[in-house]
Design brief:
Elements lengths: L7 H29 L3 E5 L19 H4 L11 E4 L6 E5 L21 E5 L2 H6 L8 E4 L13 E2 L2 H10 L5 H26 L4 H12 L11 E4 L21 E6 L2 E2 L2 E2 L2 E6 L3 H19 L7 H18 L7 H6 L2 H5 L47 E4 L2 E3 L2 H8 L9 H7 L4 E3 L2 E5 L4 E3 H8 L8
Parallel strand pairs: 1-5, 3-4, 5-6
Antiparallel strand pairs: 1-2, 2-3, 7-8, 8-11, 9-10, 12-15, 13-14, 15-16
Helix pairs in contact: 1-4, 1-5, 5-6, 5-13, 7-8
The structure holds glycine and manganese (II) ion (2 copies).
One manganese (II) ion (MN) binds next to loops.
């Protein structure tokens, strides 16, 4: 992410939109600092985490509160220093290190907006900050030397809450980054689908995805879920089997890309040749599109989740998977057997972005609907929010076995369910930016723009 390579038209859009983005982040940070009684903010990019008893580290991930300022994902122990009314200062850690290549000095569309200083170690970093930090808040890792720096508070919850709350609504710059993350992710998905059609293993499908995106695994926002056949029932399946299964039935691939620190989160499900499973996928796809069509500013996300269950009941009924009406399937918990996760979540600098339950910037939580413990978002949508929409229907042995032992089991058409077990499940997931009266589907737009598919070499 250091250089942020991108097509010329996007480069121009980033060039124009980063300045206003940073100005907006400065203004809202200044308001949050004033409300919480601080005069400055020091934000840490994070430190490398060493592997136990070795001299290697785990792959570095920059902290999101740092990335909202600067698209630098690969510079541990760097900092942003912000005092309201002044240009933000960026302290980039460039150690003298002949074992590793030090980060390049920052370059690109965003750099001129900062007072950039290259620092070789923590002592130099401290020297590049104001001598007294007694009224400053600090967000980041509590490294050993930090107590000697004299900040007023480390990760103060009230300040962090205000900043996290505001992250839900994206600036035009952030939306441009999220569109690009979707374009890269869609390229990866097209390559992955080609690999599946050619009979590839899960591992080979992931390699095709990475190549299609042009990203290394550690540059992705999350580990891809690449599930052939019945493994589609494992919601966060992680095995990436290297051998090809004897029979090929289906692929569920949940994989996203990252651009300038912003994530996409995309799922597609394919049937190899079974017509009934393909038709069930098409039903879930239509359900997903119906839910997407209802998005706009002012919609309570809990209502979206409950509507998803009502529509899932109808799909189960139409597909002959249940022996009761849709309303009864919802009321008795049957739909939760087939759809046991939330309908979506906030997306941005993190794949499951912060602030999903906050009633306001100041305090308070918005509860989930009763019996829906996995919903990650309970807020009312506002213009600029970016969310995922990810309905699904799964055949999960653990949940089906439990259902069979309960009264609700009599409402399930078991022979029909058993016929679908070998496919695992279906999830269709897009990323959407909420507008005043509708939404922009970043994922479908990205797939459409790649049709006919670009040659991905
Ligand atoms: N990729 C995880 C999720 O869809 O939330
Ligand atoms: Mn996903
Ligand atoms: Mn998701």
């Amino acid at each position: 992410m250091q250089g942020v390579d991108c097509p010329p038209a996007l480069a121009a859009a980033l060039e124009d939109s980063f300045g206003p983005h940073l100005k907006f982040v400065c203004e809202r940070t200044a308001r949050a600092l004033a409300a919480c009684g601080y005069s400055g903010l020091l934000v840490h990019s994070g430190s490398l985490v060493p592997v136990f008893e070795d001299d290697r580290s785990y792959a570095f991930e920059a902290h999101a509160p740092f990335k909202i300022w600067a698209p630098l994902g690969d510079v541990p122990d760097s900092f942003v220093w912000f005092e309201p009314g002044r240009q933000p200062r960026l302290l980039v850690h460039r150690p003298a290190d002949y074992w590793h290549k030090p980060a390049d000095p920052p370059h690109g569309y965003w750099v001129r907006h900062f007072d950039v200083r290259l620092v070789s170690d923590l002592a130099a970093t401290r020297a590049a900050l104001p001598p007294v930090l007694a009224q400053a808040a600090y967000i980041g890792d509590a490294f050993v030397e930090l107590p000697t720096w004299g900040v007023k508070a480390v990760n103060p919850p009230a300040l962090m809450r205000r900043l996290d709350y505001d992250r839900a609504a994206k600036t035009p710059y952030e939306l441009a980054c999220l569109r690009e993350a979707n374009r890269l992710g869609a390229r990866g998905h097209l390559a992955a689908r080609e690999a599946f059609d050619a009979g590839a293993s899960e591992f080979e499908i992931e390699l095709a995805f990475l190549k299609g995106c042009g990203l290394r695994e550690q540059e992705l926002p999350y580990n891809p879920i690449v599930a052939l056949n019945a493994w589609g029932a494992v919601l966060h399946y992680q095995m990436l089997e290297k051998t090809t299964p004897a029979a090929r039935h289906s692929l569920l691939i949940d994989a996203g890309a990252e651009f300038a620190g912003y994530a996409s989160d995309i799922t597609r499900t394919y049937s190899h040749e079974d017509v009934a499973f393909r038709s069930l996928i098409e039903r879930v796809d239509r359900l997903q599109q119906a839910l997407c069509a209802g998005l706009r500013s002012g919609v309570d996300w809990r209502e979206v989740h409950l509507r998803a269950h009502a529509l899932t009941g109808e799909v189960l009924r139409d597909a002959d998977l249940i022996r009761c009406g849709a309303d009864e399937a919802v009321a008795t918990g049957v739909t939760r057997v087939f759809l046991p996760h939330g309908i979506g979540h906030l997306l941005g600098l993190e794949v499951h972005d912060v602030g999903g339950f906050m009633a306001s910037a100041e305090g308070g939580e918005l509860p989930r609907p009763e019996n829906h413990p996995y919903l990650r978002l309970t807020r009312t949508l506002e213009e600029g929010f970016v969310v995922t929409m990810e309905p699904g229907i799964y055949f999960i042995p653990q949940l089906l076995d439990a259902a069979r032992a309960q009264p609700l089991g009599s409402r399930i058409n078991w022979p029909c369910v058993e016929g679908f077990m070998k496919f695992g499940g279906i999830r269709i997931e897009d990323d959407l930016a909420v507008t005043a009266n509708a939404s922009e589907n970043l994922t479908r737009d990205a797939f459409r723009a790649l049709t006919p598919p670009e040659s991905i070499v």
